[in-house]
Amino acid sequence: AQRVTQPEKLLSVFKGAPVELKCNYSYSGSPELFWYVQYSRQRLQLLLRHISRESIKGFTADLNKGETSFHLKKPFAQEEDSAMYYCALFSGNTPLVFGKGTRLSVIA
Amino acid sequence: EAGVAQSPRYKIIEKRQSVAFWCNPISGHATLYWYQQILGQGPKLLIQFQNNGVVDDSQLPKDRFSAERLKGVDSTLKIQPAKLEDSAVYLCASSLGSDYLNEQFFGPGTRLTVL
Fold first, then answer.
1. Alpha carbons A59 and A43: distance in angstroms, whole number
2. Nearest C-alpha neighbor of A8 from the set A26, A22, A19, A20
3. Residue A30 pLDDT exceeds 90
């Protein structure tokens, strides 16, 4: 069965420090991976998807099939990045299986 | 454009009572999803509709949960009777299509508390 693991429930970093939110998945096929974000009092929204290979709000994520990972990275954290981040996997059988999420707290 | 609408935003009921949630997707979106998000967990898909047909309801507890999308637009999710473990946020999402290229847009959710 498909599974997404986000090992950290909470990640605290100082403003300007690099950020890495970890995501590992298990899926025997070719996965489509996404990062969703939920800012305080806002709706869950798509941040980026691996197929787009783009940087959104300074965040990037690279799919590493060998390590079955899709870690989210940003070189310099900003206070407005504080939010809940969810990694999600899409497969033909079950669209969007979500991880448990990581709360990012950026300290000024 | 207007986003996905859900009502009510909050609901408190006692166990064994019934409750219904309503969702209005973004206009033109053929695919509609209901997710359950228990505190501390990520959203879990309950049911997916394509127009007015069910595509996936494998994780829907059918002994107590039901959902419909009769006219292929808005949808209702019902729980009857509710249990304590049904306390969660129920999220509705919609997308133009069902494949991974179509972004899912989420509603604000309905927070259900079962006492």
1. 19
2. A22
3. no
pLDDT score recorded for residue A50: 87
Rounded Cα–Cα distance for residues B94 and B107 (Å): 9
Chain B residues touching A32 at Cβ < 8 A: 100
Q: Which residues pair with B14 in a beta bridge?
A: none
Give the C-alpha separation, A105 to A107, whole Å: 6
Task: Please tell me if residue B91 touches chain A, with a CB cutoff of 8 Å.
Answer: yes
Token pair, residue A82, equals 């504080």
Q: How far is residue B75 from each of residues A12, A95, B12, B50, B79, measured CA to CA in Å?
A: 39, 19, 21, 12, 14
Distance between CA atoms of residues A30 and B8, nearest Å:
38
Closest-CA residue of chain B to A5: B42
Note whether A3 and A25 are within 8 A (CB): yes
pLDDT in tens, B7-22: 999 999 999 999 999 9
Residues 6+ apart with CB under 8 A from B43: A44, A86, A96, A98, B35, B36, B37, B91
Does position A2 have pLDDT exceeding 90, yes or no?
no
pLDDT digits (tens, 9 = 90+) for A48-82: 998 887 888 999 998 998 999 999 999 999 999 99
Residue with token string 């509709």: B49
**Which chain B residue has its CA at the smallest distance from A84's CA?**
B42
